[in-house]
Amino acid sequence: MIADADAGGLGLPDRDYYTKTDAKSVEIRERYVQHVARNFELLGESAADAKAHAAVVMAIETKLATAALTRVERRDPYKLKHRFTREKLAALTPQFSWNKYWANSSLPAFTELNVSQPQFFIAVNDALQQFKLSDWKSYFRWHLVRAYAAYLSSPFEQARFDFYSAYLRGLKAPPPRWKTCTNLVDRQLGEALGEVFVAHTFSPQTKQAALQMVQQIEAEMGADIRSLTWMSPPTQKQALVKLQGILNKIGYPDHWRDYSTVLIQPDNFAANTETRRGV
Question: Which of 12, 72, 108, 223 could form a disulfide with 17 if both were Cys (CB 3.0 to 4.6 A apart)?
Fold first, then answer.
């Protein structure tokens, strides 16, 4: 187990969208800038300000994208392994206060981490000097809206669908509202939904019968291991340890997840999508 710092911060699917020079790629970038500007206007900016801020976002993201590895390069695991101490990372990016970042994150304590793409973080450090504070505010405002667009009012949701789903992926229409709602509940309150489901479909008696069958199979496997003449006693012992280490998950957990700290607000959909942080 090791902490990892990787490249990111892009609004288009990957770095190639920013670097390719063919006509389609150029068109995608133009449409992307229009999409970002549309969201700034939805936030209340004038058309002129929205266009200017969208151009800034594109400039910052292009800077970051050109320093990131390509998809092909990321397939080479040795290009993604760079063991750093926290102090070494801080020295690599002196414009970024990592100590403040660690202090305000929920990460456990650590002294070393893997920096997947050191050149990317060098580019981040350069960008922090190149772009003004107001530019970064525009950049982060956009990425905050992009992250929450699906959970905001209809104009934001529609803008998101029009670009990412319709234009980039060719979808004709968004999924029906009921499917969006059930998928979100399943994704964020999965065990609460699962508890209701199994109450109707998978009784405790059924679970006990399935568990008994699995335990009988494991008992027979243990007997087979003990009777193997070609396996040495130390190897048999280790094989039995592995067998006994199997965790049987039958139907549903023995102890359901506690959602009592989750706050659901009927008038704040976007806030409800963050309830997983309270679990």
Answer: 12
Task: List all residues 6 or more positions away from 214 whose beta carbon is below 8 Å from its beta carbon.
Answer: 248, 250
- What are the percentages of helix, strand and coil residues in the chain, rounded to 5? 65, 5, 30
Task: Spell out a b/e string for 8-18, using b for 16 or more CB atoms within 10 Å of the CB, else e.
Answer: ebbbbeebebb
For 7, counting Cβ atoms within 10 Å of its Cβ (0-12 exposed, 13-18 middle, 19+ buried), the class is: buried
108-146 CB burial, b ≥16 within 10 A, e <16:
eeeeebebbbbebbebbeebeeebeeebeebbebbbebb
Comparing C-alpha atoms, which of 270, 271, 37 is closest to residue 154? 270
Question: CA-CA distance, 184 to 173, in Å (whole number)?
Answer: 18
Q: Are 125 and 95 in contact (CB under 8 A)?
A: yes
Q: State pLDDT tens for residues 9-25.
A: 999 999 999 999 999 99
Single pTM value for the model: 0.81
pLDDT of residue 275: 54
Strands across the sheet containing 3-5 = 3-5, 112-115, 83-85
Backbone angles phi, psi at 113, to 5 degrees: -155, 165
Strand-strand pairing, 112-115 and 83-85: antiparallel
- Residue 87 CB-half CA count within 13 A: 0
- Record the tokens describing residue 82, joined without a space: 């760079």
Taking residues 69-92, what's their average pLDDT?
96
Mean local confidence (pLDDT), 172-194: 91
Beta bridge pairs of residue 85: 112
